[in-house]
Amino acid sequence: MYLIFFIKLCYNCFMIILGIETSCDETAASVIKSARGLFTVRAHVVSSQVKTHKKFGGVVPEVAARKHVINIIPTIDTALAQARLSPKQINVIAVTKGPGLVTSLRAGTQAAKTLAYAWRKKLVAVNHMEGHMYANWIERPRIPFPALSLTVSGGHTELVLMKGHGKYKLIGRTRDDAAGEAFDKVAKILHAGYPGGPAIQKLAAKGDAAACAFPRPMIHSRNFDFSFSGLKTAVLYQTKGKKTAGRRLHNVAASFQQAVIDVLVAKTVAAAKQYGVKSVFIAGGVAANTPLRKQLAQTLKQGLPKTKFYTPPLWLCTDNATMIAIAGYFRARHQDFTPWQKLSADPNWELI
Ligand code: KG4
Ligand code: ZN
After folding, report:
1. Which terminus has fewer CB within 10 Å in the chain: N or C?
2. Which residues, judged by CB distance below 6 Å to any ligand atom, belong to the binding site of ligand 1?
3. How far is 15 from 6, CA to CA, in rounded Å?
4. How far apart are CA 277 and CA 264, in angstroms?
5. pLDDT tens per residue, the chain (352 residues)?
């Protein structure tokens, strides 16, 4: 019995995980090694389709899926070569099961199933949003609970209370557009470029955030829900029939970005106070927004000086497979495996 316990303990301490991510338009594969709760990234490969979708101004699902099918095996091969590991040395395969575009997800889940069967590996199904949250664990394996996550991506805007690993409670979410979606739509209105978030951030850096009086939707509501569709419409009305270029373009971008940040910061701090959390972190593509990171850090420091604040490294904010491998590690530690025969893509998989 002691021997079984010891083997289990060792298995939990040392694990090499292959992560696979194909939920949207990035084909990604990573290899991480966990040793006593510390992670080493042995390989991090992202084959981006941004150039392909740029000309359409957004992701075309059918095109994305075809590209994933072509890219998935070479991407995994590159990751293994980068890690200098053979399939034999992999302990677990972690793959994004959902949410996302179903045709994109299928490319990753099919590859993971096939490899799990052929290589006789354990398989872990990971929720994409959980992956974004776990990007925060890469450098700090001991984030104190209860923790509050502001999860902001292209499809989600949520405040999630995390009482422990895998223990989630949804306390607020967007009622219409996600924050990232608003950035993307406003970038289209302003012909700012693709993807929208980084393009708006760049324009905003040279603008006056107080130039346009955009609304702060639901900032004073007595719940932790969000709404960004009205803000996007306000930008549309502000710019309709007028030439938006030069200084004016920078000012509109800066004012819009500030309105989004004000709402995200106010709601996050209020939720952190109400739930008495020990730590707050941000997750998802919008977490790459530098002014958001800075202003949330500042406001938390002033209002809740004892609460710890974490941000994922910039290279782990947008879609990647390292975050999927980390989330996979925590599921594997709890023996949360899926037999390869039972794994299927779930485009609407809600974490909570
Ligand atoms: O998490 P993610 O890579 O994909 C989803 O799971 O949706 O998030 C993509 C979103 C896009 O809407 C993109 O415009 C936004 O994240 N984004 C940003 C920034 N970088 C990416 N939004 C604001 N500022 C950024 N720097
Ligand atoms: Zn994502």
Report:
1. N
2. 24, 132, 153-155, 180, 183-184, 195-198, 201, 284-286, 288-289, 318-319
3. 14
4. 17
5. 555 554 454 556 699 999 999 999 999 999 999 998 799 999 999 999 999 999 888 899 999 999 999 999 999 999 999 999 999 999 999 999 999 999 999 999 999 999 999 999 999 999 999 999 999 999 987 999 999 999 999 999 999 999 999 999 999 999 999 999 999 999 999 999 989 999 999 999 999 999 999 999 999 999 999 999 999 999 999 998 878 889 999 999 999 999 999 999 999 999 999 999 999 999 999 999 999 999 999 999 999 999 999 999 999 999 999 999 999 999 999 999 999 999 999 999 998 8
Helix (H, G, I), strand (E, B) or coil at 57: coil
Sheet holding 92-98, edge to edge: 38-48, 26-35, 14-21, 92-98, 122-127
Nearest alpha carbon to residue 289 among 267, 322, 320, 311 = 311
What distance in angstroms lies between residue 292's CA and the mean position of ligand 1's atoms? 12
* Site of tokens 């889940």: 109
Q: How far is the CA of 53 from the centre of ligand 1 (A)?
A: 15
Cα distance between residue 325 and residue 195, in whole Å: 25
Quick check: 97 and 47 in contact, CB under 8 A?
A: no
Q: CA 135, CA 317: separation in Å to the nearest integer?
A: 7
pTM: 0.95
Whole-angstrom distance, CA of residue 314 vs CA of residue 110: 29
User: What residue has token string 């900032």?
Assistant: 219
Q: By C-alpha distance, which of 98, 130, 94, 128 is closest to 112?
A: 94
Q: What proportions of the chain, in percent to the nearest 5, are helix, strand and coil?
A: 50, 20, 30
